[in-house]
Amino acid sequence: MTARTKTLLGFAIVAVVLGLVPNVVEVLDAPGFYLTFLFTMFFWISQSSSWNILTGYSGYFSFGQGAWFGIGVYTTGILATKHGWPFLVALPVAGLVAGAAGLLLGLVVFRLRRLSGEIFALTTLAVSFVLASVARLTSLIDGGRGIFMTGTPLPEFLGDFRTSMYRMTLVIALLTVLTAYLIFESRLGWGLFSIRDDEEVARGLGVPTFRYKMTALGTNAFFGALMGGVWALQIGFVTVEDVFNIRVPLLVILMAVLGGMRHWMGPVVGAAIIYTLTDRLNSAGLADVNQVIIGALLIVMVLGVREGIYLRIRARWIASGVIFFGAMAALTVFDLTSSLIWDFSYALLITMAMLLIPTPLWERLTRSRITAPPSDRPPEQPVPSKTAGT
Amino acid sequence: MDVDLLAQAAVSGLLIGGLYATMAMGISLSWGALKIINLAHFTFILLGAYLTYQLTTTFGIDPFLMIVVVFPLFFVAGALLQVFFEWAKVDEFRSLLISFGLFIIFTSLVRTVWTADFRRISSEDNPYASASIFIGGVALQVPLIAAFIAAVVIAVGTSLALSHTHFGRAVRAVVQDAEMARAFGIDPRRVAVILSGLATAYSGLAGVFIAMFQVLSPTMTFAWFGIVFSVVILGGLGSPYGALGAGIIVGVVAGVASVVWGPLSAPLVTFLLLIAALLFRPSGLFRRSPA
Fold first, then answer.
1. Fewer CB within 10 A of the terminal residue: chain B, N end or C end?
2. What number of other Cβ atoms are within 10 A of residue B28's Cβ?
């Protein structure tokens, strides 16, 4: 059994297990907020994974996730409410519209002779602002009035609203992560990594850099908008301020950086952690502290765990597993908190504290040399930035 | 279209362009000369504004006196921040992320201290908010005139300092080749610390002027991102005159656009300008200055 078959099998198992969650919740009569918690997590997993396909793989830093998200929200919003399209038809169209917009942007910026990574980053930031002002100005899109999504009919087979949201976000999140994985393992993925490491050399060696970058950008935009389209339903009343703000690009970056941008699993882990923490802090009424913690976490992670949490978990997988599941079991068995989500977040925090121990100190602490499972990637180098000089 | 209205828009745009230049100067210098994309500058501007609001409201200090308070205070803050960056040995990419973290922290601190309510210096403490000078039917707001003058002084002063003083030569040497500069007895870290202090002090000053004529809220930074980065890129990194020129261009174009096509079109036009500039002059419109 090859590594790929194993991973794909893992995907199938995860898909089936998560797919059955709504039924389990129904049978156990568990509170509905578990589903909401999970589908919001799926939203972030998909957003950060799609962002990572461009930025983590190719090294071109994008602030533009909000733009793709916004295109998704508004396309489905307009098609489903003003033109009466069935929601599930409007959704892929939204993805394609954003994909086309992404390719258009790529056509402009990737043709620049001396495009530095920083200029790319700020251009993508600018695109979101342009889209915001276009949406605000054009009465066909928004015109400053907003769109009500609350009455949008959904197909019967998806279940009630919460269950529908769960199923749609789950499918899109699985598709995004699967795509991220398949690209990671493919020729396209290796090409993108070579662009990230040294674009000149990559081009010299015959990597079709332009085409690969366009593919990554298009894929990023497509999935960002697909999930954005579903999210329009969750927002309910769509306004320009809600959609084109700095929140989506900001959190997506945090999640991928925290999890690790050099592996397809990184954003998944990062999104799960950050979303759980922000959700818990918000529900404890600490929204402002939340921001401070998130900011501090970003700084600590960038300085302390350069390779990202995911690769560090792999390097310390025994300790991570023991601590996480041990804490989870202890918290659940002794019933120390009010819900499973709290157990999960405390277990996460404890595990992360262990992961933050610097590598030299860790090696001294674990003299018995716990070795990591064989890695399918060469040792990680610090991410080089795309500066004009390199 | 009213000609007076257009003239008013152009002149106001010119003046507010000076403010944009002051806001962009710090970021441009730190990016161009220190290789640090410091998003925390946006919160320095915000902090400068709120500090001005607080001190003028509490103690009744003249807002213009705040320049003397804010400049040294923010110089120290910026110098300390650079000490931290030097200690952490960040590259451009990491500086973006770390200062993003600082941005989030400072913004939420501002929100905690001053709440999300709109704040404005009362008219007793700030006689300049509504003061204008009229020249042939065109009104010039006093705070904007001050911001414009400050921008010119900062741009000329910084540029002259970079080209004529020992410190300026040291900066340029470090930018060109830090190792070689070290060999000639320049301490790159000290140069960087001083430069970061200056850049931060400029951002603080921009905040003082903003507090003089605008309503403050913690989320106003988001509206600045687009304009400030347009100015930084149009002007060319690390170029004081470039930032000034680009600030004026952006100010005038946005001002005129908002009169011709409505106020919401201003950001759109600004960004189209930016994208056009990226396509045709990727290194900035003004490519002459040192650093």
1. N
2. 30
pLDDT digits (tens, 9 = 90+) for A191-218: 999 998 888 899 889 899 899 999 999 9
Task: List pLDDT tens digits, range A114-135.
Answer: 667 777 887 887 788 788 878 8
What per-residue confidence (pLDDT) applies to A390? Answer: 37
User: What are the boundaries of each domain within chain A?
Assistant: 32-245, 246-366
Q: Residue B185 carries which side chain, given as an amino acid letter?
A: G
Q: Could you tell me which of A311, A323, A316, A381 has the C-alpha nearest to residue A347? A: A323
Contact B278 A294 (CB under 8 A): no
Candidates B27, B42, B96, B261: best to mutate against A (most CBs of A within 10 A) is: B96
When CB atoms are compared, the residue of B104, B222, B274 closest to A291 is B104
- Chunk chain B into consecutive blocks of 10 residues (it has 291) and report each block's average pLDDT, rounded to whole numbers: 80 91 92 87 94 89 87 94 88 82 88 84 77 78 88 92 87 84 85 92 93 85 81 86 91 88 77 76 60 40
CB contact under 8 Å between B268 and A291, yes or no, is no
User: Do A244 and A135 form a contact (C-beta atoms < 8 A)?
Assistant: yes
Which among B93, B107, B272 is the nearest to A61, CB-wise? B93
Distance from CA of A346 to the nearest CA of B (A): 23
Cα of A337 to nearest chain B Cα, Å: 28
Q: Do A303 and B92 touch (CB under 8 A)?
A: no
Find which of A113, A114, A122 to mutate to test the B interface (most B CBs within 10 Å of its CB).
A122
ipTM over 0.95: no
Interface probe for B, chosen from A292, A294, A390 (most Cβ of B below 10 Å), is: A292
> In angstroms, how far is the first alpha carbon of chain B from the final one?
43
| Separation in Å, CA B66 to CA B129, B147, B204 | 15, 13, 10
B138, containing H or E segment: strand B138-141
Per-residue b or e along A111-139, where b marks 16 or more CB atoms closer than 10 Å to that residue's CB:
eeeebbbbbbbbbbbbbbbbbbbbbbbee
The domains located in chain B, with CATH, are: 3-280 (1.10.3470)
pTM, two decimals, is: 0.81
The CA distance from B132 to the nearest CA of chain A, in Å, is: 30
Average pLDDT over all residues of chain A = 84
